[in-house]
Amino acid sequence: MTSAVVVGSGPNGLAAAVRLAEAGVVVRVFEAEPTIGGGTRSTTTPAPDGAGTLVVDECSAFHPMGIASPYLASLGLERYGLRWRWPEVQVAHPLDCGRAAAVWRDPAQTAAALGPDGQAWDATVGAVARSFDSLVEDILRPVQHIPRHPLLLARFGALAALPATALAKVWRGEAARGLFAGVAAHAFADLRLPFTSSVGLVLTSAAQAVGWPVAEGGSQAITHALAARLRELGGTIETGVRIRRAEDAGAPDLLLLCVAPTAAATILAGRLPAAVARSYGRYRYGPAAFKVDYVVEGDVPWTAEEARRAGTVHVGGTIEEIAEAEAETVRGRMPARPFVLVGQQYLADPGRSAGDLHPIWAYAHVPNGYPGDATEAVTAQIERFAPGFRDCIRSVSARSVAATEAHNANYVGGDISAGANSGLQLVFRPRVAADPYATGIPGVFLCSAATPPGGGVHGMAGFLSAERALASLST
After folding, report:
1. Residue 422: phi, psi to the nearest 5?
2. Closest by alpha carbon to 14, among 86, 69, 56, 93?
3. 309 near 105, Cβ under 8 Å?
4. Which of 26, 31, 58, 69 lies closest to 462 in space, CA to CA?
5. Terminal alpha carbon distance of the chain
6. Which Pfam families match (predicted)?
7. Would residue 430 count as lying in a domain?
8. How does pLDDT run across 257-316, given as a tens digit for each residue?
9. Alpha carbon separation from 312 to 2, 92, 94, 103 (Å, rounded)
10. Per-residue pLDDT for 424 more than 90?
């Protein structure tokens, strides 16, 4: 029988393993860490004063692309315990004036709340949301493919190619512009550069089309469901096994690497074609995430009502402030007021809390490899829009950029996007090639978030890499 080894148990590694096992391949997954999941892990921690336990997501928290993923949807992961839960407000963006712009799953409610900008919002974001199911079939694939919906993709592409700051000019008010900039900032890129509207359009439209749900019980539930499906198909997972060289994986017919390109170059050293080795060695990484987990008593005292009901709150102020902060991080400088994402997962999934003690998940965008402590900068940004926040804090736990990389080796320099989203690399990851998953070595493929369609808990990079690996068996 055909055998395969998958290195790495993040969502893409597990998705690749499941797809191979579905095809009858004997699959083994090797994970270097003691627990599986990569960026899709959660922990249960004691609440302060021993008042029960709290569930804390280690990295990924909200999953619009997880629920939109065609492959994950095909697996029926609900059979293995996965349950999606939605907050009332999908994402909120507070402003200094005490107001907030927000996205609801109801497009009409979102447009109405944006007042004079509602019609223009509906004509851009709303139009993408209405065709989101069809659009996903094309955008969750490599750029170099025959589109299933060419006209739809072309219309989307015309807007997605714009800098986020340029597309935002379609709205007149500070609220709508800030809301879009906050979502676009998920790209960890200079929002004044071309194509930075793409992430903003995809994620805002997803918020209206499918929402930004959390996994009940923590993001680890996604990992557990994928692992359960793999084991049901006969696949095995071994933790605490670090593959440093290809020989460490044995001699399988197929080897799929859910690792960063630079790590792949090390594992495959001496075997890679020279051009591929150079490309992997030149792969660029983007800004980092500095994570802070708070335990608060009561809810965060946001000034804006919408933020009190939102699963995700983007903290950064105006579009001008966000664009400047993001440009600073790209240039390797720590902004005085970094862009901060705040997660209030417990609003959708109350079981994560212990009585009136709630876990608050947050991270700031900081330069790649940033050696400093951004805890105070994160706290100050939240306090700016939620006066009295400091008084609610019962405990604080920070994870530095170095600790983020140590926790997940794919996050080089703390880059949780698995690669810089700029220049040619934004379109062609991990290198310019007809087959982005192929390494140039027969039977060996890359399947991490450094390959199309990039970051996010959707498993599509793993699925598409596995499809390519299966096709290679017949050539």
Report:
1. -155, 160
2. 69
3. no
4. 69
5. 17
6. NAD_binding_8 (PF13450)
7. yes
8. 999 999 999 999 999 999 999 999 999 999 999 999 999 999 999 999 999 999 999 999
9. 44, 6, 11, 10
10. no
The two structure tokens encoding residue 373:
């402590």
Q: Could you tell me if residue 27 is inside a domain? A: yes
Phi/psi of residue 229, nearest 5 degrees: -65, -40
Alpha helices in 283-400, H assignment, sequence order = 305-308, 319-330, 375-385, 389-392
- 331: its two tokens: 């240039």
447: domain CATH number is: 3.50.50.60
The encoded tokens of residue 73 equal: 């949807």
Q: Is residue 242 included in any domain, yes or no?
A: yes
Name the residue type at position 387: P
Better-scored residue on pLDDT, 225 or 420: 225
Whether 240 is in a domain gets the answer: yes
Domain count of the chain?
Answer: 1
So what's the pLDDT on residue 145?
65
| Tokens 């989101």, residue located | 132
Range of the domain at 236: 3-40+64-82+215-284+420-472
The CA distance from 298 to 344, in Å, is 12
pLDDT at residue 344 is higher than 90: yes
